[in-house]
Amino acid sequence: MTGAVRAVHPALRGLLAGPMVGYDLRTDPRAVHFGLPAPAATVILAFEEPIDVGWADTPGESARHWQMVSGMHTRPALVHTHGTQCGIQLSLTPLGFRLILDAPIGALANEVAGLDELGVPSALHARLADEPSWDRRLALLEEELLRRAVDERASQPGDEVAQAWRLLRRTGARVDEVAGSVGWSRRHLTNRCVAEFGVAPKQVIRLARFDRSRQAVRSGLTLADAAYRFGFSDQSHLTREWVQLAGRTPSQTLAEEFPILQD
Asked: What's one Pfam family the UniProt record gives for this protein (predicted)?
């Protein structure tokens, strides 16, 4: 696998959930990548071949995109590699989604769409594809993100929504306490979260907990310690959640994170 990684620009902190990654991977044509749930949206710009993506619970259905985006989801996505994966991937926070794509992340909850459906011109993809180096591609994309973020500053969500998001993502967050902190009833918090994020408060907590535990276990923390640290009742609870969200056990996910072979 070849490619490049570009750290988050200071002006994009809080908008990108992590670095931008350029990748060029050759795999067995049967290889399938599991796109895991996270408290962020995933954007992929594909080169050489369009990305073939669907959902694990509807394996016979998929669509091909040169540039795609998915909102937050609570089921694994399936990416059929067909032997080639070449592109750029980045993750947008809810604020980043709204400012850069000028829409709430909730508009694509548990869905995948082409970026053209959100008003992103195909000319950008063509420019990136023509660049000879990953560093230049990532630099050009960063310039576009910075431009769009500045242009869309007026479309920021309310302060209470942003505060609720921060509180829900904290380890040990409780829905009633978050609602009280922002001055809302539990019902109003749920309605606002579903409208803005596409998922209810409990699902935000669930996604954040899964994402943190996965990153920690991948870095060497034991499953038992991860269960304790991130608020699972025990290791069995962590494993059940992992299987429901990732479609595989923790050991399968870590051993085969990218790619796996489809039976």
From this structure: HTH_18
Instruction: Write the DSSP symbol of residue 111.
Output: -
All structural domains of the chain with their residue ranges: 2-154, 159-255
How many C-alpha atoms does 144 have within 13 Å on its Cβ side?
Answer: 16
Joined together, the tokens standing for residue 183 give 């001055």
> Which is nearest to 210 in space by CA: 199, 223, 200?
223
**Cβ-Cβ contacts under 8 Å for 106 (sequence gap 6 or more):** 71, 194, 195, 196, 197, 198, 199
**Per residue in 220-234, pLDDT tens?**
999 999 999 999 999
d(CA 40, CA 208): 9
Q: How many CA atoms lie within 13 A of 143 on its CB side?
A: 9
Q: What is the CA radius of gyration of the chain?
A: 18
Place of tokens 């059940």: 240
Q: Pick one of 3.40.50, 1.10.287, 3.40.720, 2.60.120 as the CATH number of 2-154.
A: 2.60.120
How many Cβ atoms are within 10 Å of 108's Cβ, its own excluded? 21
Token code pair at residue 250: 């923790």
CA distance 245 to 222: 19
Domain covering 159-255, topology: Arc Repressor Mutant, subunit A (1.10.10)
Whole-model pTM? 0.90
pLDDT at 126: 94
